[in-house]
Specification:
The protein is an alpha+beta fold and about 90 residues long. The chain has 2 helices and 3 strands. It holds the Pfam family Fibrinogen_C.
Length: about 90
């Protein structure tokens, strides 16, 4: 796992610094109820001088959607802003 994670994060970092990306997560429960969460900003290590040393921090922002009504706060991606993948 130690060799896989940094390699994968390097690829995600390389993709997300090339342009502005959004993240959309669609949810469906066992009763076919649906919700979504959309984030207007998404990237990994966007503002890092050395993302490998910084742990590829997660950048997300500008939430919109219907998932806020069905998910507890700790499940929201915004609660993980700045999360380091190291």
């Amino acid at each position: 796992m130690e060799t896989y994670l940094p390699s994968g994060m390097k690829h995600i970092h390389a993709l997300t610094i090339q342009a502005n990306y959004e993240l959309r997560i669609d949810l469906e429960d066992f009763e076919n109820s649906t919700a979504y969460a959309q984030y207007g900003t998404f990237g990994v290590g966007l503002f890092s001088v050395d993302p490998d040393d910084d742990g590829y921090p997660l950048t997300i922002g500008d939430y919109s959607g219907t998932a806020a009504v069905v998910l507890p706060l700790e499940c929201h991606v915004m609660a993980h802003q700045g999360y380091r993948f190291d």
